[in-house]
Design goal:
Blueprint: H1 4-17, E1 50-56, E2 64-65, E3 68-69, E4 74-79, E5 82-87, H2 93-100, E6 109-111, H3 117-120, H4 123-130, E7 139-144, H5 153-161, H6 173-176, E8 184-189, E9 199-201, E10 208-214, E11 221-228, E12 231-235, H7 244-250, E13 257-261, H8 278-288, E14 292-296, H9 300-303, H10 306-314, E15 320-323, E16 328-331
Parallel strand pairs: 5-6, 6-7, 7-8, 12-13, 13-14, 14-15
Antiparallel strand pairs: 1-4, 1-16, 2-3, 4-5, 9-10, 10-11, 11-12
Helix pairs in contact: 8-10
């Protein structure tokens, strides 16, 4: 049977022959899978203790390279074998949520870092699927507040599901708990372009969560710190180097893992007002001093020059660095 890579190559040749050569955002850069540092992975997330699973490790582009694709950003927190917290639901993560065995019935909350499609595009699908489960308790959905051209989390849900004018009005029962649906409990966290104070989130007695506003250009955005049994993981979310309060608040935190969003390389022309460069990721990791750094929210433009990126990171951080793939699981 023809494999997917061969099929894609033949499709590209056929398109070229018809005068429809595939369009790329930038010239491809040669890379190999061997150049990508990967962490050894368990057969499944552990049945005891806590673990954070990367459901989606990709970005906003539909990319296929090295025999794999990546869903939009999403994470799932497991406690003693039970899914408890969903962070983001980027495009494609709906399938990964199912592959991982995720269920809305057991979730304490859904957290959103920001409301770009590659972080929230599959939220409606995840909720729709959860409507077929037996959950009756309200489900908190926590995310950033509003800004120009960006609704706050509560308004986003109303636009998505509102009974009168929602895009999926037929699922409007999620807004008020009617029509055999569990009710969503939205909460907007003030962000002030990354300068607002961190906010503790009361979602569980088994672990703690703190939302940290970050700067992501015009998009209100958050990073998160999750702590269980004295062990913390930090999710940077999409943030630029202007996230000075995030850096100040978490310097010296020494988390078990820092999940950094690795979207751009250090070359000219990259959207630096939105994301940290590899060198800036290294500086952040050096300040927070995690036991390990995991790069996720990866794109081919950031993965292709991997050697250069690792060198830039190492200037600020001397610890272990690996690159996440979809469904990777990291025990705390």
């Amino acid at each position: 049977m023809m494999n997917r890579i061969a099929a894609a190559a033949l499709t590209a040749l056929a398109l070229s022959a018809q005068g429809c050569a595939p369009i790329t955002a930038q010239a491809p850069v040669a890379t190999t899978t061997a150049a990508i540092p990967r962490a050894e992975q368990p057969a499944a997330c552990p049945a005891t203790g806590a673990a954070l699973q990367v459901l989606g490790s990709g970005g906003p582009l539909a990319e296929w390279a090295g025999g794999e694709g990546r869903a939009g950003t999403s994470y799932l927190l497991w406690i003693d074998g039970t899914p408890r917290l969903l962070i983001d639901a980027g495009s494609g993560s709906f399938l990964r949520f199912a592959e991982a065995g995720g269920k809305l019935a057991s979730l304490d909350a859904i957290l959103l870092t920001h409301l770009h499609a590659d972080h929230a595009g599959d939220l409606g699908d995840v909720l729709n699927s959860g409507g077929f489960e037996t959950r009756t308790a309200p489900l908190p959905v926590i995310g950033p507040d509003s800004a120009e051209r960006f609704p706050g989390t509560g308004e986003f849900l109303a636009r998505l599901l509102g009974k009168d004018a929602g895009a999926f009005a037929y699922n409007g029962g999620f807004i008020d708990g009617s029509e055999a649906k569990f009710r969503l409990d939205p909460r907007d966290i003030p962000t002030a372009a990354g300068t607002a104070a961190a906010a503790g989130l009361d979602v569980s007695n088994d672990y703690s969560v703190v939302a940290h506003p970050v700067n992501h250009g015009p998009a209100p955005a958050l990073g998160y710190v999750i702590e269980w049994n004295g062990k913390a993981v930090v999710i940077t979310g999409d943030q630029s180097a202007l996230s000075e309060r995030f850096l100040a608040d978490l310097t010296g935190a020494k988390p078990v893992i820092l999940f950094a969003h690795h979207v751009i390389n250090g070359a000219e022309g990259q959207p630096r007002g939105l994301h940290r460069t590899p060198a800036q990721i290294g500086e952040l990791a050096g300040a927070l001093a995690p036991a390990r750094l995991v790069l996720t929210h990866n794109m081919q433009r950031s993965l292709a020059p991997m050697a250069e990126s690792l060198a830039a990171i190492s200037a600020g951080y001397a610890g272990a660095v690996t690159v996440a793939a979809d469904l990777d699981c990291y025990a705390l």
